[in-house]
Write a structure and sequence with these properties.
Shape: globular
Order of helices and strands: HEHEHHEHEHHEHH
Structural class: alpha/beta
Largest sheet: 5 strands, parallel
Number of helices: 9
CATH topology: Rossmann fold
Strand content: 15-25%
Number of domains: 1
Radius of gyration: 16 Å
Distance between the termini: 40 Å
Length: about 160
């Protein structure tokens, strides 16, 4: 858990079913064992939560719920391109967490593709968001050694109904 005390982020990337979430949760469980306040959330759920909070007046409270944990696991990071409003929320969250906590990002996209997923040159916040998370980060890219014999984690644990039939 040294990455936590050093306020470093983890980027876990790879194809669907390769074990990104499993690995991130393993890091999260170890953080919990070391008594670090840890929270897991899917990015789409976080963005919906913040949008609802904006309308009901609890935005600051909900933002704090995600900004304050020492370790935050953001699953499905940039799976869908965020809207301008969502980009502002992401920027604000990551700005508040910068240099005082660690964030674990799980994404199907490799780090080099994140800028484009954030809107690229058309988005004034894309650079700012990347700047808040890229420095002093560790990157774990899960790739296939033998694609012909790969099995997804869902298949291994019997979680994929289609594969069981």
């Amino acid at each position: 858990c040294e990455y936590i005390s050093e306020h470093r982020n983890l980027f876990i990337t790879g194809a669907t079913g390769c074990g990104k979430t499993y690995m991130a949760c393993a890091f999260g469980m170890e953080a919990c064992k070391q008594y670090f306040n840890t929270k897991y959330v899917r990015l789409p759920d976080l963005l919906i939560d913040l949008e609802m909070a904006r309308t009901d007046g609890s935005y600051k409270k909900v933002m704090a719920k995600y900004a304050n944990p020492v370790v935050l696991i953001l699953d499905e990071w940039l799976l869908l391109k965020p809207t301008d409003s969502e980009q502002r929320d992401i920027f604000e969250l990551l700005h508040r967490r910068r240099k005082k906590s660690s964030t674990i990002f799980c994404s199907q996209y490799e780090f080099e593709e994140w800028y484009d997923q954030l809107g690229g040159d058309a988005s004034p916040l894309a650079d700012a968001i990347i700047d808040r998370i890229a420095h002093d980060s560790y990157r774990i890219n899960i790739t296939s050694i033998d694609a012909e014999h790969d099995r997804s984690m869902r298949e291994v644990y019997g979680l994929d109904k289609a594969l069981r039939e």
